[in-house]
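Dear U.,

For the methods section draft, I wanted the exact inputs and outputs in one place so we can describe them consistently. I've listed the two proteins in the order they'll appear in the manuscript figures. Please don't edit the token lines directly; just add comments below if something needs changing.

First protein:
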Amino acid sequence: HFPHLGSWKVQLIASDISTAILKQAHSGRYGQHEINRGLPPALLQKYFQPFGNQWQTRDDIPRMVEFRQINLTETFAPMPPMDII
């Protein structure tokens, strides 16, 4: 969506209260039902590959993401400066 950012080093922080959801997100594997919940076909082709009866994110995607268990209703560790939230 942002071709002009192609030379940038992009890092993402993914947070959830659920360790199970974070584990699934870290694995990058999603079932067809999850994929069908709003992911346009062009993005599916660009960022995913078939993995058995599931879909797997490309190998470079999880390397850009730091997965953190955070309960947003409680106090949590300070976050680094961010450009987009």
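Second protein (the one for the lower panel):
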Amino acid sequence: MNMMKLYMSFFCLSLLCLNVNAQTEKKEENEVIKGGFKKENLFVGGNVALGLGSGNFSVGVGPYIGYSINKYIDAAVGLNYSYLSQRDYYTTQKNRQSVIGPSAFVRLYPVKFLFAHAQYEYNFIKYKQIYGNGIPDNVYKINVPSFLIGPGFASGRDAYSKSFYYISVLFDVLKNKNSPYTDNLGRVTPIFRAGYHVALFQGDGGRSSNRRNERRRF
């Protein structure tokens, strides 16, 4: 709980930093608004996810496509797929989950190498309970929303090269007991995600030309 409060504080602090930056660069922000849609700000990416907990293991992938709104904010939509395995230490029961669902996220960059991540997911879950001891397995399906927040590190997002590696650690603050991001005792577990973010339509022009056009691109 304390860790989640810390990440909520980090997210709020990022918003504050963005507001300060926006005030100090008001002229540039006005130019961004006038510039309209820029195809150079489109990006694609993907991540892998790993979750560990008490009797809990999960792995997943999440491709996405999005747009850099300005030099501080990225927004995207994507699709998540994950597999979850849980084991009950007190019985012979094992649980297996296959999860797929759409997602949307916003990343705030108070500085170019750190970001705050907020992501909404709506997951369709196929759940299988394996009882053992000759008892038939039980299979059912549920739909569960999740809201993930947390900090991340980017290897070099800036106005000249918006392709980079990243890693983040997220928590599901909705804490739904059926969430794929809780352990077998209903406790929220950290989700580690790492991936690569690829900027589109930036071409092969020189970095000096990119610098001259920084404001136009953002």
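Candidate sentences for the figure legend, describing the second protein: Residues 2 and 153 are 21 Å apart (CA to CA). Residues 20-24, 26-33, 204-217 have pLDDT under 50 and may be disordered.

Thanks,
Y.
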